[in-house]
């Protein structure tokens, strides 16, 4: 299974390298549309290789997806934490009740009773 993972990583790496080599031309990336840039009297733009724009877009999309999923799962994580707290509380209560049940008994009999 590990080798399959390494093969997949190698294929993805080769694909990314081939995209980068095929798209080395410089492109101008404008931060604001021309209409909006005219309002502020600025035209922010940067010259980048096309493959950086493509790979940057992929990374940005992944980050947005990860954050979106993390926010979406907040309710499930909160419920799991609540159930874990309730489980710990109930385990403490069971231990306390067993201690009260065996109070005043012989220790050996209490251990045998607790084991069954």
Automatic annotation (TrEMBL):
It comes from the Bacteria. Residues 80-107 form a coiled coil. Keywords: Cell membrane, Coiled coil, Membrane, Transmembrane, Transmembrane helix. Residues 46-94 form the Lipopolysaccharide assembly protein A domain. GO terms for cellular component: plasma membrane. The chain crosses the membrane at residues 46-68. This is LapA family protein. It comes from Sulfitobacter aestuariivivens. The lineage of its organism: Bacteria, Pseudomonadati, Pseudomonadota, Alphaproteobacteria, Rhodobacterales.
